[in-house]
Structures
1.
Amino acid sequence: MKRKELTLVVLLFVGVLAVVARAEAPLSYAADVEPIILKACADCHGGDSPKKGLDLSQGKGFERLLGVKSQEVPEMVLVKAGDPAASYLWLKVAHAATQGKGMPRTLFGSKKLPQAELEAIQNWIIQGANP
Ligand code: HEC
């Protein structure tokens, strides 16, 4: 193979690797989930007296969620890496929880997050609930 061809092949290979690495980078709390939480949840789950003692304000949510017991259903944790069905946070946003209301709550009831945001949260948990 000529030098020029070899360079081309190498460049192509590096390009393909970059694309694959990007496609496979797991979702992270900071980049993919926290923006949703700050927008839809932190008004209530933040400040001086966060609802249910759950403080999801900037920089605090991850530590407060992963492996931490739910107040409402103490036999469950809020986020169990790899397992949305065993993550009480997921049940709350999917409106499948047995206690209280679905999240996010509103003045008189509750609403559902847009489908794309629900999928981001679900996939983040499935992919290992990375920081
Ligand atoms: C308008 C205020 C309000 C908003 C907005 C809100 N919550 Fe809540 N949240 C509450 C209240 C009040 C409770 C306790 C009563 C209940 O569950 O309905 C609660 C309870 C919870 C619990 C149970 C905590 C535990 O330890 O068992 C989770 C998890 C939760 N919220 C997550 C969220 C998420 C995620 C969002 C955003 C998508 C959100 N909440 C938005 C008020 C709110």
2.
Amino acid sequence: MKNLIGLLFLVVGLMTVGCGDEATGSPDGAVPPGGPTTHVVSSEDGNLSFLPADIVIAAGDMVRFEMTSTHNAVEVSQDTYENGGIDALEGGFNVGFGETETITFDTPGLYYFVCQPHVPAGMIGTVTVQ
Ligand SMILES: [Cu+2]
């Protein structure tokens, strides 16, 4: 019984040390090397494409959509994307004309987005989250 209590204190002690290390692992809230990255998808007035149109990122990364005044970036379903539609995906991201918004992608998968007025010109894009 005495040994068991001793073991219990040892385990609790180790857990406390573990938490202490974690708390001091990221001073000043700095993102550690290998942590989330912010990528940029932008547009230019007079240029009917996203820059870049297709990007591959890691789960937990962010994409900052920087839209100029004549473009938006609206998430759509795969079906809408493949059929040249413009209907926004319910619950999807929606960056308005001239707006800049940072979206976090936590779940791996393929995300589709379009610039609604310029779908006929092929202004569409994807975010692949690995
Ligand atoms: Cu556009």
3.
Amino acid sequence: MIKKLLLCLALVSLTAAACPAADTAPGTKRRGQFALTFDDGPGYITGDLLKLLEKRGVKATFFMLGSSVRADPAMAKKVHDAGHLVANHTDTHKNWFKTGRAGDREKVFLSEVKKAEEAIVKATGEKPSVLRMPNGYTAPWVREAAKKLGYRTANWSYGSDWTRTPEDRMTAEYVKSVRTGKVLLLHDGGGKNREKTLRITEAVLNEAQRLGLEPVRLDVLLKGPDPKE
Ligand SMILES: [Zn+2]
């Protein structure tokens, strides 16, 4: 392992190239990877989003709310069965910048994560292992508490679809963010006018194709170096 790491470092310093993955067959060119993540669903556009991703042969990650899963467990199962990663986004999307200051925060955290987990397991048959807190809330106690429950926490590198930015400018920003190692955040649930998620996703996939980058599930991307939180 150390030998391999040293070799990797040597390669990096000599060639300034990324270390090739161990499972890459010799001679194959490893493409840069990034991840598309969709939060708050399942929502009313999730079915169309699945069609789009399937058409483009792409796997993504869906951070689902327990409350959204209970509202449409069949759609949660469809996402899972299509080979996408279903991840935990807590049960009811509390404002953790407020809840995180309360004395019973760990108790609320446990309940919010476990309830969502139960809904996801019931719908998909699989326990999620990646957690994203609402609004990107993060703190050492959250990461510790998540770890105890068997979760890795993951935020994102770029996302703006909840802002008032005009859609053409927003799309351009997303497209600009398609880079190796990046985690893009869009929403497929929790609001109206989510159709732009479909349009932006398509633009992002076109750019990825142009650059030769591969969109992968977050668990695949996380196998590499830690993404920036
Ligand atoms: Zn959210």
